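Hi L., both proteins are below.
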Amino acid sequence: MEYILGLFVLYLFLHYGFKKYKSMLITKQEKYIDSYTFPNKINEMIVKEYPHLTNNDVALVIKGLKEYFIVCHREKEQTVAMPSQVIDVAWHEFILFTKKYNDFCKKSLGKFLHHTPAEAMKSQISAQNGIKLAWKIACQREAINPTNPSKLPLLFAIDGILKIPDGFKYSLNCNSINSSGDGGYCASHIACSSGGDGSSSCGASSCSSGCGGGGD
């Protein structure tokens, strides 16, 4: 009896010890991402691509890039789509620093993160499991209700905020997209679609007929 009890205590010790270690590792990796200093050349290339951006704008893009890496860190199994064109440009430039990028991925994610172009967003948004994951985790990160959002998380708002000409524009008011004819993506439509695991992420009442598809 004492032997069985000892095994049980050992199991609990190992189980909770591993959970604590895993939690500490996650915190350490995300702190590493948050404090990482990217090569200055990335800032220069962002401005070269979008000359209207100020230094503060570029700093916001870098913040968004870190946020994307943290979102990817939170989702280990599936691919998280890139919701922003300007952050995608920064990501692509970072990859060109091959050794730095490889080291960064190992230390922050524990694996090499392959580049998934933002251009993939130009297909039907309801079919993109990766964008649903990005929306779900980004909302969780900023304490936003994904099925009834009061604002857009940074990853989904930044192209609009910075007026990126070829950027992806999202709106909380899906009817405004349809009535304006300006194109764009309905943010609520993402939450109203089924999740990456096949489960529904919101009730039918959360999405009206105005939550249609996005532009090309």
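That was the first. Here is the second:
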Amino acid sequence: MNEDDLSKVIVNAAIKVHSALGAGLLESAYEACLAHELARQGLEVKKQLPFPIEYEGMKLDVGYRLDLLVNDMVVVEIKAVEKLLPVHMAQVLSYLKLGQFKLGFLLNFNVAHMKYGIARIVNGL
């Protein structure tokens, strides 16, 4: 399955989770439910994956964690905030660049309709 195929599955799963739960819960609840839904569909989902950064040849564990990494290809960052900010987009783009991933999603579940909470972010590598 390539990134585009995964995109469709991730977006549909996010919509399903949001439809079932609605807005107003903690990010951890959406993360657990989305991870369950993706795994139920046969995808490999890593949750709260430690993500060190490299600096001058050293790997430094500075506390970064990917919310979800799907099939070792797509980064999913989950939010439950009033409004997505540029810093949230920058966070996902940084994860993509540091991990040399091509595609990421920023999903804000604190919206009336999930379609308004989906941001697809591509790393130009």
